[in-house]
Write a structure and sequence with these properties.
Shape: globular
CATH class of the largest domain: Alpha Beta
Number of helices: 13
CATH topology of the largest domain: Rossmann fold
Low-confidence stretches: none
Helix content: 25-40%
Order of helices and strands: EEEEEEEEHHEHHEHEHEHEEHEEEHHHHH
Number of strands: 17
Distance between the termini: 50 Å
Strand order of the largest sheet: 1-14-13-17-15-16
Number of domains: 3
Mean pLDDT: 95
Bound molecules: iron/sulfur cluster
Radius of gyration: 21 Å
CATH architecture of the largest domain: 3-Layer(aba) Sandwich
Strand content: 15-25%
Length: 435
């Protein structure tokens, strides 16, 4: 069997998926309190529509998209607003959040089934926007914006991202194993909007059972979808690497997949599209992996957006005594979290508990060139880092800093344990300010 991959750079970290791979999705009982951030998407934060003391119903809009690149936020529960305050999420972003005390009895308003196939593409796009769907692979780009093809452009390929290349995370894998029909239906709804020449689902070799199951369902339904099996290689889940691996196209610096005729959509997003068009259900919950060597009972749970990490950890049997590092997301691109009460957002695919710090003590650069060799974007991380260290942000940007995906391949291979990615994040921020 031929396995495709991208050529330039990349690394092969131990995948550690065995900790949670066989853990079927469980529904988290509704927490007593949810903290729903107004900044759960790329773009302008939503504007809060509720104040302290207001009653909220499950699925009701509580935050309104404040610009085109923004997304509505819906209440994940029936309850009462107890506070509207600034809250930090795992990425470090601080925004208004609506705090909801959840009712003991919860309604189930999304049971009516709609015939989305009779809707026009425009109506489907409106519905996806109204349901607050954003990319759930971590980038959280508003999905309706991504699926809007500018006049004169044609989509050659819709690529569904079932790669999940971050170690430990298995939420997309469980979704593909437990809800293949729904995922495929969501994919067909996206395809109806885009009218692509080809539809591909990219899946890595550590999930071949999911690939086979999807192929079986594709064949049974007669869908024009192809499953592309891929070698295991990080960061293949990044849009640019995935497109290189699946359709052989390179997205040039500063350009988007659409510029090469492609749209990439995460597997969980395809499922959210299904729920939006089939049941008119907003994005109010998601599947999240709780894993790592320092959690007692790793799990995959479906939890309401706004659930505190501490509630997820408690549901997974709590942390072991050796817990040192709490991470929101995967170990490569995730964020170290100091406060376990921060809330899940639409892009939260994982909560990890690890017995060691990700960042050890660092030493001077030994000019080994490993970071250059493994950078999938063809950058020179050592030179960019040196320039940032000495405040030469423009020089770092001239070396392609803005093309850095913050994938962490350079830091993973650096024998000096230099905090390269933290440096690039800071360099981008300060470089933009100086412009
Ligand atoms: S973090 Fe940036 S510089 Fe480092 S390997 Fe990834 S893309 Fe290259
Ligand atoms: S991998 Fe680390 S030590 Fe080697 S050249 Fe890059 S920054 Fe320097």
């Amino acid at each position: 069997m031929k396995l495709a991959t991208f050529k330039r750079g990349g690394v092969h970290p131990a995948d550690r998926k065995e900790l949670s791979k066989d853990k079927a999705i469980e529904r988290l009982p509704m927490p007593s309190e949810l903290i729903v951030s107004m900044s759960q998407h790329l773009g302008a934060p939503a504007t809060p529509l509720k104040k302290k003391g207001d009653t909220v119903r499950k699925g009701e809009v509580i935050g309104s998209a404040s610009s085109y690149v923004s997304a509505d936020v819906h209440s994940p529960a029936d309850g009462v607003v107890t506070d509207v305050r600034k809250v930090r999420v795992a990425s470090g972003a601080v925004a208004d959040a609506i705090v909801i005390k959840c009712d003991e009895e919860q309604s189930n308003p999304f049971t009516e089934s709609y015939d989305w196939r009779s809707e026009s593409s425009e109506e489907l796009l409106k519905l996806i926007r109204a349901m607050g769907i954003v990319g759930m692979g971590g980038a959280t780009f508003p999905t309706d914006v991504k699926l809007t093809v500018p006049m004169g452009k044609k989509v050659d390929a819709l690529v569904i991202n079932g790669v999940e290349c971050e170690p430990y995370l298995t939420s997309d894998y469980r979704l593909m194993m437990e809800h293949p029909e729904e995922l495929l239906e969501g994919t067909m709804a996206a395809a109806k909007i885009l009218n692509p020449d080809q539809i591909i689902i990219g899946i890595e070799a550590n999930k071949l059972d999911a690939a086979a199951l999807l192929e079986e369902k594709i064949s049974a339904n007669g869908y024009p979808i192809r499953v592309q099996r891929l070698m295991m290689k990080y960061p293949q889940g990044d849009e640019k690497q995935l497109l290189k691996a699946t359709i052989g196209k390179e997205v040039p610096s500063g350009k988007l997949p659409l510029d090469v005729g492609a749209v990439v959509c995460n597997a969980s997003t395809a499922f959210a599209i299904y729920e939006a068009v089939r049941f008119h259900k907003p994005l109010i919950e998601r599947i999240c992996t709780i894993s790592g060597e320092s959690v007692n009972n790793p799990k995959n749970v479906i939890a309401p957006i706004g659930t505190k990490f501490s509630d997820l950890i408690a549901y997974a049997g709590g942390a072991k005594d050796d817990l040192v590092s709490l991470i929101g997301g995967g170990p490569m691109m995730g964020f170290a979290v100091a406060d376990p009460d921060i809330p899940m957002v639409k892009g939260s695919g994982g909560v990890l508990m690890l017995p060691k710090m990700l960042d050890d003590v660092s030493f001077p650069c030994v000019l080994c060139g490993k970071c250059v060799q493994h950078c999938p974007m063809g950058l020179q991380p050592n030179k960019m880092f040196r320039n940032i260290k000495y405040g030469n942000y423009q020089a770092a940007m001239d070396l392609g800093l803005m093309d850095c995906k913050e994938c962490g391949c350079c830091a993973y291979t650096c024998p000096s344990h230099l905090p390269l990615v933290q440096g690039f994040k800071l360099g981008k921020k300060l470089g933009r300010k100086k412009k």
